[in-house]
Amino acid sequence: MKRKILIVEDNVGLSQMQKDWFSQAGYDAVTAMNETIARSLIRRTQFDLILSDVRLPEGDGISLLEWLRKERKDIPFILTTYNPQNETCNAPRTNGAKIKTKRETETKRSVPSVRFFCAPAGGVI
Description:
Elements: E1 4-8, H1 12-24, E2 28-32, H2 35-44, E3 49-53, H3 61-70, E4 77-81, H4 87-90, E5 98-101, H5 102-105, H6 110-118
Parallel strand pairs: 1-2, 1-3, 3-4, 4-5
């Protein structure tokens, strides 16, 4: 069974590029353009990893992460941003999420990171 990844990104080109890479690497990748759509998908689907932009047109990645923790959903979460020095990313609100720059997630080099976060306990995908 393929591992499921939710990509929450409002940049359609980047979102599609990431979806294609993860699909080629053997993952079932699903995209959402904003926090509202992401929440709806999370309620209906069990994801193994969420890769979310910090800034979204409706909501943001950090409030999505806070909601996820409040709902007691223990899904690995990676925040992406163009500006990791932004005070939002350094806030305690990141609640244990890993933060990656957009430059890192704009390349296929993000696939090994995802493999790490999706690995079952005691194993590697």
